[in-house]
Design brief:
The chain is mostly helical. Helices cover 67% and strands 0% of the residues.
């Protein structure tokens, strides 16, 4: 019958396929001698993707906090009229964000454990 066609990940990580991508750098080859997890190119790729995602999430969270604190500081320092905020609108903005975050947190985490990331993103 023959062997089934390799998947995209297997093709991109296979050393015997011409033109395949090898994520193993010299650093990970050296680390792989000490930590067996990094001997598999698939694990190296997943680790690199995790690092990039964590860095992006950290920067996105930092920027969100900086923006929110800057708006709060501007409001407190007397720029209420320049921001066109009336009454408790700043408090409402923060409350609505927190409610949306709290409501989406648990379902978002559950979806990530059940559905592959390629179909979500």
């Amino acid at each position: 019958m023959g062997n089934p066609a390799p998947t995209v990940l297997e093709t991109s990580l296979s050393p015997d396929v011409p033109g395949s991508v090898q994520p193993q750098t010299a650093f990970f080859k050296a680390v792989g001698r000490v930590i067996p997890y990094f001997r598999n190119p698939k694990n190296v790729l997943i680790f690199k993707l995790d690092i990039m995602l964590i860095a992006w999430l950290f920067l996105a969270g930092l920027m969100k906090e900086m923006d929110q604190s800057a708006t709060t500081q501007a409001y407190v320092s007397g720029m209420r009229e320049d921001l066109n905020l009336r009454g408790n609108e700043l408090v409402q903005f923060n409350t609505f964000f927190s409610i949306g975050y709290a409501l989406g947190l648990v379902p978002g985490q559950l979806i990530q454990t059940r559905v592959s990331a390629s179909s979500v993103f």
